[in-house]
Amino acid sequence: MLSRVARRTYWMARYIERAENTARLVNTYHFLLLDLPRGTHIGWEILPVITGGYALFSEQYQRHDERNTVKFLLADSTNPGSLLNSIAAARENGRTSREVLPGQAWEQINELQLYANARIGDALPRRGRFEFLTEIIQHCQQLTGLLAGTMSHDHAYDFVRIGRNLERADMTTRVVDIGAMSMQNPDDVGGLDVHVWTSMLRALNAYQMYRKDIQLGVHCADVVSYLLQNDYLPRSVAHCLDQIEECIGDLPRHQDTLKPVREARRRVGRIKPEKLDAVSLHTEVDRLQVGISAIHNQIGKTWFA
Amino acid sequence: MTIDWKNYNPGEFYDELISTPGYARAPARNLTAWLRSLSDEDLQARKLDAELAIIDKGVTFTVYSDGENIDRAWPFDIIPRVMPIREWRNIEAGLKQRLQALNLFIDDLYHEQKIIGDGVIPESLIAESKGFRKECIGINPAHKVWAHICGSDLVRDCDGTVYVLEDNLRVPSGVSYMIENREVTKRILPELFENNTILPVDNYPDKLLEMLVSISPSRRKHPEVAVLTPGIYNSAYFEHAFLARSMGAELVEGADLMVDEDDYVYMKTINGLARVDVIYRRIDDLFLDPEVFLPESALGVPGLMRAWRKGHVALANAPGCGVADDKVVYSYVPDIIRYYLDEDALLPNVPTYRCNEPKEREHVLANLESMVVKPANESGGYGMLVGPQSTAREREEFRRLVSSNPRNYIGQPALRLSTAPTLCDHTVEPRHLDLRPFILQGAETYVTAGGLTRVAMKSGSLVVNSSQGGGSKDTWIVDNEGG
């Protein structure tokens, strides 16, 4: 398999996943803020911080209100991580690796982009946002399912899975980080935590599974453990890393790349959520993100060079 | 309303299917009778089926000026063009003869230039040729073949004579559409294949691969073959991907390849570097190797020419073969055939006036209204004057162009291209067409059964290029006599 085609399938999968995650995050946050009492310190500006675009956001917008944040995350053409840009990048990568993709997948990506560009205006005011984002999430999931169900599960598909899972792991760490930030204010009225962590579970489509598996109430340490360490939750960091390890094991010349994956996996396993406060949780999350980007760099060095 | 062939009148033109109103030519009789048996509704339904099949199969071509939406569905007319096998065998022999002679000619030009020494072709012609590459002098490609893949354009004049209009030796395209057209016809008109013996066309990718393997410099049993494309923005990208897929070859871009210190060519794969033996390149000479040609080319591979000169990789077509794809050289092809093969040309050239010869130039300039004037080195119908359809102003412009650079122009009498019945909205009308067969030469020489028929969809128009509103037809070589 050509390195260029491997790189493009990897990025296509990452961008599809990123688009879905961004849609999910904005959707969840939208509902969380509706639930919180007035005057809480949690605001929209956390999202640009979490997605790594805060500097750019501050540069572009004076007012960090809902409208501007949502616009920045979904529609802004200067934000490389915006929903529209992610979809465009997924399409561009798909377009240039068409020889390994099922024909229908290409049609689906096209449709996704047509829909997103045509209806993005609906997502900026609150009224149409939910419907738009739900539609985007469904499109992305269809695409993921289509690839799983129709593409040969060969090396090209390994790169799809690696891209998808690395992006998922990355997003999960960011969501946990939102939780950590919301814990930082000691003046918070009790009960706020529950709202925040429930929302974070929802952002990762994990609330129902959490309830089924954990049953007890929503507590910070349980949620953190669930999102980072659960073996079965598709978006837990541990699960994503296991998937990545499996795919990498299939690929030629994988020794150097297995190392950072196993290292990150060990680090996740060692975390003791019940002993963490806001600051140390943030530090752990930070380290995991460094580990994830080390995996990404090594993948590039080994197979895309 | 069903088709009434009595109302179909091609006028002064030679029609490929209908000899006089109401009478079909022998090889087309099954086809025309069957078409007449269809109701208008049925005909329209089949047309729609064809359009859907083309969209389904993703058969597209690319238009540069179309902005974002650059892939367009391939335009296709459902009524096939039919030729009898006996006529085709002559054409086939003529095309093989032509390409074999042209390859000997190119090889001679890059070695002793005997043909110039013997006074058959003037030296100035080569000295001023845009396609001649001094970097290729003295190189010995396998089998002495430089142009491995050739797409020659054939046209038929009103007296029925088939002429070679031009030979495309650089990077001819269209063969994938020939194959797809047949696929679509089989889907939408399956009944016709029962009563007609139609030569198949879908073995082309096998023949192409066979040819490419036959020029491999390595002794490996399964040489690595790659198709080199300029990328998705190229108008023929669909074809590049199609051919690579059909041959099981890698589709590569310049950046996927590298020439290592050992002067071999490698492609970058997830397994590391993998050696490439044969490259079917679909990019022009000047973009091939920035170390030798255009230094700013990002499409090519630095060092590729070095590897080729050392015989470490085969390039099809070989760099420099465009020297024979020059409309002034074209005018000498009958002489070239006689010189190298000691045979008369089996297929005639269109009479051609060379503007660098004063008498012939005068003739062209005096008869601009009835001539087609073409630049020597363009393709795709660009930069030419079609006399009968030109304005006085355009003719003045060409008078100036020809006088200032006579070597770069030739003139030909405007031919009255043949027609074939074409489905236009709800009627069947005559439309002009040409034919591009594809010829392969490696260890052996092969010609496609028929080729790509291109048809001008506008009434009276002679422009068949798909970028300028042209369509296409399936082309049948039928063997109904053989039994």
Features:
heterodimer, A: 305 residues, mainly alpha, 14 helices, globular, B: 483 residues, alpha+beta, 30% helix
* Overall average pLDDT of chain A: 90
The share of residues in extended strands of chain A comes to under 5%
Q: Can you count the beta strands of chain B? A: 24
The general outline of chain A is globular
How would you characterize this protein structure?
The complex is a heterodimer of chains A (305) and B (483). By secondary structure, chain A is mostly helical. Chain A has helices at residues 3-35, 46-50, 54-60, 66-74, 83-95, 103-123, 126-150, 155-182, 192-203, 207-214, 220-229, 237-250, 255-270, 278-304. Chain A contains 14 helices and no strands. In chain A, helix 1 (3-35) runs antiparallel to helix 7, helix 1 packs parallel to helix 8 (155-182) and helix 8 runs antiparallel to helix 14 (278-304). Chain B is α+β, with helices and mostly antiparallel strands and 483 residues long. In chain B, the strands form seven sheets. Chain B has a five-stranded mixed beta sheet. Chain B has a four-stranded antiparallel beta sheet with strand order 7-6-21-22. In chain B, helix 3 (85-109) crosses helix 13. Chain B is globular and about 70 Å long. Chains A and B meet through helix 1 of A and helix 9, strand 9 and strand 11 of B.
Question: What order do the helices and strands come in, and which of them pair?
Answer:
The complex is a heterodimer of chains A (305) and B (483).
Chain A: H1 3-35, H2 46-50, H3 54-60, H4 66-74, H5 83-95, H6 103-123, H7 126-150, H8 155-182, H9 192-203, H10 207-214, H11 220-229, H12 237-250, H13 255-270, H14 278-304
Helix pairs in contact in A: 1-5, 1-7, 1-8, 1-9, 5-6, 6-7, 8-9, 8-11, 8-12, 8-14, 12-13, 13-14
Chain B: E1 18-20, E2 23-24, H1 29-36, H2 40-57, E3 60-62, E4 71-73, E5 77-84, H3 85-109, H4 114-117, H5 123-127, E6 149-156, E7 162-168, H6 175-188, H7 192-195, H8 204-214, E8 225-228, H9 237-247, E9 250-252, E10 257-259, E11 265-269, E12 272-275, E13 278-281, H10 285-288, H11 304-309, E14 314-316, H12 327-330, H13 333-341, E15 353-354, H14 358-366, E16 371-375, E17 385-386, H15 392-404, E18 409-413, E19 419-424, E20 427-436, E21 438-441, E22 445-447, E23 452-456, E24 470-478
Parallel strand pairs in B: 5-24, 8-9, 8-13, 13-14
Antiparallel strand pairs in B: 1-2, 3-4, 6-7, 6-21, 10-11, 11-12, 15-18, 16-17, 16-18, 19-20, 20-23, 21-22, 23-24
Helix pairs in contact in B: 2-6, 3-13
